[in-house]
Write a structure and sequence with these properties.
about 325 residues, mainly alpha, two-stranded antiparallel sheet, about 60% helix, about 0% strand, transmembrane, membrane, transmembrane helix
Amino acid sequence: VSVLYWRTAPARSLPAPSTQSRMPHRPPTREQVEAEAGDSKLRHRGAICGASCVAAFVCVIVALATNIGTVDTVVNGVPVHASVTLWKICTRSTKCESGGSACTTHENCADPGDFNCGAEAEHYHGARALLIVALITTAALIVVCACDALRCTPHVVCGSFPIRKVIALVCGFAFLMSFSGFAVTLAAWHGDHCGPAAADIDGAKVGPSPFVALVASVACIAAGLCSLLLRTRLEKAEARQREVRAAEAAGRRDVVQLDYLGNVRPDNRGESIQVRRDEETPVTPGRHPQHRASAQRDEPTRSEAYREKDLDG
């Protein structure tokens, strides 16, 4: 009885297979492959760009430290805090009260901070003006490099900031900083005019050589230009990736639209949509011309059916 019941029992309704299991696995299209490769390349370039921005930031700090350290030795003769030194550079008078323009050592001056000694005065005056401007723009360069490092980081945007123009502008001011630092340190280390007496304390040199400051400033400029170049290439790659993603999205949206005759259906603009061969579109059997032709070959025509009926009698 159980066997008969099992054979005569109604079949249980099984769940319909999912659409994903019925749909065949489609290989990735060319646009999808290009988009994924572009994303990977974009991430790598973004990491390199961010690293270059960090390197530029470090070079700016080193160049700024070498220039400030050298100016410390010129102004006061003793290593003091950078902020105090900058304040003294911007506020000290340039008059040498005791010896006038003929003094040769800083002992002849009433205040060692007032440097205006002989032929070196032009170097100090020009370097001071350039140094003030360069220090302000160097602070701006630090902010710009930090912002650009964040800009290169995925999902972090500093707005529509003209980063390339700002970096190019600040690199020019970095050149002024290198010139000013070189001029100040060269004047401090040249001859017997104020500089050597202020830079030599207990027989030891306090500040670095002018060439060290010059190399650090040139490295700052090179790092800024490298960051600018990498940023330009990254923006071009981003634009290319946006085009690839747009093409991929358009390919998924406008795959195939056929009318009942199997022809390509025009879109809203009246233009013919290109039929993509690499995408599979489910077509109802009998609707497509190829399916109708195969169905006609498989099924006998009406005349063949009557002929077989007549032969059978």
